[in-house]
Amino acid sequence: MRRFLLCVIVLASFSTLYANVGRGDFQQRFLEANQLMEEKLWNKSIDIWLTLFAENATNANVNYKLGYCYLQTSNEKLKSLPYLQAAATKEVTLKYDPYDPGETNAPVEAYYYLGRAYHLKYELDKAIATYDELLTMIPKKHRLYKDAEHQRQMCVEAKYQIEHPQNYVITNVGPKINNDANDYSPVLSLDETAMFYTSRRMRSDSTNSEITDFDTGEWKEDIYVSYKDAMGEWQSPELLDINTDEHAATISVSPDGQTLFIYYDEGGNGQIYQSVLIGETWSDPEMLGSDINTDAWETHASLSPDGKTLYFVSNREGGFGGRDIYRCVKLPNDEWSKALNVGATINTEYEEDAVFISADGKTLYFASTGHNSMGGFDIFYSVLGDDEKWSIPVNIGYPVNTVDDDVFFFPTADQKRAYYSSRKEEGYGLKDIYLIDMPDTPIETDLAVLKGFIIAPPGEELPEDCYILVTNNKNGEVTEYKPRSRDGAYVAVLPPCMGYHIEYVVNQDIIQEEFINVPCESAYSVIDKEVHLLPVHLKGAGAAEEEEGGEEPVAEIEEEHPDTGFDPANPVNVEVAEANAYFERFFIYDAGEWSLAEDKFAEFMTGVKKIIETQGSVKLKVESSASNVPSSRFNNNTELTEHRNKTARDQIKDALVKAGYKEGTDFTFTRPVELVQGPKYGNDAYNKSKYEPFQYIKVWADVKK
């Protein structure tokens, strides 16, 4: 993240300096522009250099200064190229005085920045040649020698990445989110129903009309949020009530979207704050304590899904160089531990930033100017191994990574997609926010996400005393999740190799409960559960007995079941396409073993064999599900769903082997998906229609990759 300069105190002499622009002598304006450069006020400095260039177009030093300033801007870097070209074509000098108005030669550093300008223009061979020329002109002890070698290697990497692009589909998220200003740094709740992001737009009430960045003239950064409606469409963004007259930028958000991490710049010393959603209001941001914020520069943070580990970025002393990634763990007293550098595998002697931890806590995404970057910051990922060590970082590749800085990258829970910001010609403004589809990513996510809505009766509000308790049956650990007040949305992460007891609590009453099993080798899955409250649930404990003379009322919890496609009249659904065979059969409770109708099974196997013959191999996935109705034949429903899955796989395998196909060569099975889901009922005959949709086996066949 860039360091933001809060120009609270502006040199009083600036007003007189600007008054002289265009009518003062060369020396005075030269010194003025130099002074602005020292303050990193690049655009103000450019205004003066342009006047000097108009009068002294052949002055190599003026060309160099102008080109250098353009190269430091956020939106006009490419304008630097002609000026740096002009500077480098003149005689450069090793004895350069940057403060001498009489200096007409450019420094040898002009070649370094010219190489960077060619790099940004994607003229990579010219950039490499320019760096090569520079390396012959300066000694190895020169301050730019090592950097020039590094920049040259970035150009080589850029050529490779561009020649080997990744299969990414990049889509603008649309005009509801983006406008003609800079919109960037998107972070989302785990269920992707809330997007928080940073924007430099004019506020709808124009209250920031006079609050602009002194150098760029842009409005200062504000934080906005947009929510998806029931149709999955982003709604008009809302300005958060935690914005001030200074810069405020998004860093990350907790999985449930109710704790927001914010970057505030305090006189050039960046700090990390957090704000918590209380009802419909965000709390006053508080600085993170312990060993997280220091007198150094802290720019970014990301909380693990279980809330026990915080990864953050700091340029404090004792690191490997520049900004490094650190982590803290939550102590039993609910405080954060001392910070620990994550190590040399991740951190380099260059800069790291914008760290994000995946939903399963096993993949670390971050930006770095080190490793094998193709230019500026690139996005990398590293996977945590069974030995608790991070793997060698992998560049996610072109076209997401470019030759310029690529910093903010927010992966979705399944890690098959991500959100990021980029400046593209077809965008709505400067930087826009985009969605990236990454179908070929090798990263596997092993967890289940339980999400949905707690829906109050028409005309009623969701009670404050409403929450979901998730109990880990393995260790007894209980985690509480609060639904979002505005729409009742909730989300919970369920790691694999666990069984979970889910309780929905309203006014201290458990209104619904269920059991979910997430097997060790399960693929990423989403479990959607909607809970519709009845008026009786809003009256609190004991109210029902009073209304019914002490007897508990009989009231079913209405639940929106997943769209399983169940049709009691036709329980077998088969679709066979050109390059995709698909079979789905719902297990009927009183039907005994899974037994496919002979003609339907033959039709499915015909499709599977067609894929093998036309594509060379086939990949098969089996998902089984058992409801929470007690089983008389098995010890528990976990055993039941495992039995169903194995029965299906064995039947398909036997048929393929008999047909002469070999497992592992001609066909393979993905990891089985074994679920226990649905409401818990005791009277299975009476409630058959409720639990039957959760008793099924689904089989997919597709091209093996």
Q: Please state the second-level CATH architecture of the largest domain.
A: 6 Propeller
CATH topology of the largest domain: Neuraminidase
Main sheet characteristics:
6 strands, mixed
* Model regions low in confidence, pLDDT < 50 over at least 5 residues: 1-23, 541-596
Radius of gyration: 30 Å
Tell me the CATH superfamily of the largest domain: TolB, C-terminal domain
Structural category is alpha+beta
Helix percent reads 10-25%
Total count of domains: 4
CATH class of the largest domain: Mainly Beta
Helical region count?
A: 12
- The share of residues in extended strands comes to 25-35%
- Overall, the morphology is globular
Q: What brief labels describe this structure?
A:
single chain, 705 residues, alpha+beta, Serine Threonine Protein Phosphatase 5, Tetratricopeptide repeat, Neuraminidase, Immunoglobulin-like, 4 domains, six-stranded mixed beta sheet, five-stranded antiparallel beta sheet, 21% helix, disordered N terminus
